Each structure stands twice: as structure tokens, then as C-alpha cells.
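tool_call: predict_structure(chain=1)
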Amino acid sequence: MENVDFKVFSGPAKDPDGRVAALRVPQGCKLSRKEIDDYTKYVGIYGARGLAYIKVNGWETKGREGLQSPILKFLPDEAVSGIMERTGAEDGDLIFFGADKATVVNEALGALRVKLGEDLGLMEGDWRPLWVVDFPMFEWDAGAKRWTSLHHPFTAPQEAHLGLLKTDPGACLSRAYDMVLNGTEVGGGSMRIHRSEVQSQVLELLGIEEQEAQDKFGFLLNALEYGCPPHGGLAFGLDRLVMLMAGAHSIRDVMAFPKTQSAACLLTEAPSEVSAQQLRELSIRLRVPQKEQDSPSS
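tool_result:
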């Protein structure tokens, strides 16, 4: 898509941080224009500025003439053929496109895929676990203009990518892993950094100076100097497994005493009023909001 006249596609295709991705919807031609517009609004929740599409009415018999889309006039035959070949689209299918920063495209099309699966009855009932691996080690915070850890600062980079810590942090992959079951993450973890010099490199890359690293993580860096074997872990979410087994849509449906969205406990009525004695013990003083002070009743 780098050389097409459609800047909505060519711009992200040329951007190192951009991505153009396609999502094939089996028998999606039956979707009305209103439904497509509704899905366009839906991906807007995830930052997408639009949702291009191609309806495959008769590619097998008519070729390009069997396609329907307002973007086709901007795409040369070579690009159209490439789209059809790479998506494997058949007559009756619809192809949605995402074109933006890679993070936006991933979030928007990922959510759209799940919603389409639910709306069109494409979900399958079999249990299908999988491992997600090869996570990026870092992600760029455009606002703060610095690298941040995608997992946490103590996740080990892949051995073959140690050199990328200095030359190309964005291409460095970590030794983190998630287990996903039918689209729901049920476990996650990572191998940890076990060498002091690698840990110091990662902290420096994250903008943590040597003195600050010693102040905050000196106990860890010093311990690693004495030798530490490779180690890692995996934490499973049993509540999520129970949620899937019960056919529920939220872990709150299978928790004995779930908190509300404001973190209040309906069983114990927490948080509750704090006594003056407790406040004195902690040297805490409550300040009355200005509006209450100015009200006639006060």
C-alpha cells in the first residue's frame, strides 16, 4: 500500500510506526450500509478514524468489476490482486481495513473481530487454548517521549535481541508469555532478568539514572551480582477459568463478593467512615471542600 494514491493507506504504510491491516468477514456482503456505519462508530472508541471496506460480490467471475467499494478508484490492479490473494476472500465476503498507527489498528481491529464474531454467530464452542509469545520488550510513550516497559522492567529480553537494547529497543522482543483460552487471557508471566548488567541496561533505557536505580532497586542489582539462575513464573486467573466454564461474560458473575466499579464492597459496606482516633494515629486531617464551607448550612 506504500505507493497507492489513497493517502489513508499509503501514509501509515510508509510510517515505521504505522500499519495497514485487513480483516476478512465470511459472507459479510449481507451487511447493510447502516451496519457498516455502526461498526465504523464502534472502532472509533479505540481511536480509529474510519473503517474502509470492500464487498466481494463476484471476484471469481468478474474480477475487479465484481468488487464494490468507494476506495477502489484509488487502488491499482496490482494492489487489489494483492489484497484478494493475501486475505483469501471469496465471493460473498467483506473485507474491512484498518490504517493508522499500529497500536490503534491492533486495538480497533482486534475489538471489531470479536464483535463481528458475536454479532454474526461466527464463534465456535470448542475449547482452544493458545500461547501468545514474542511480545515487544518496550513501547514508545509519545507524550513523555521515552520508552516504557510493555510488561515490567524485570522481564528478560530474548537472548538473540540483547544487542538491540542499545541499537533498536523497539525491535527488541521479550521472554514474556500469555495463555489465552477462547479469546480470554487466563494466565501470564515471563522469564526474569538474572544478570545485573542487563538489568542496569534496561533501567537506563527506561530513563532511570544510575543513582535512582540504586536507590530504588539496589537490593536487586546487588543480589544479581552474586549470581542468580534463570527464573520465571506464570500466574493463572482461576476466576477467569470459572467464568469461561460457567458461560459468564464477566468475572464479577462468578465471584462470591464482587466489588462495585467504584471499589465499594456491598457485603461489608466498605469503605466506611473513619474515626477521629484512627485519623490522629496516622496524622491525617480531613479538609472540608470549599463549596461546603461556603454553603449557608455550614
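agent: Strands lie at 18-25, 52-56, 67-68, 94-101, 129-132, 138-141, 146-149, 176-181, 184-191, 232-236. Proceeding to next step.
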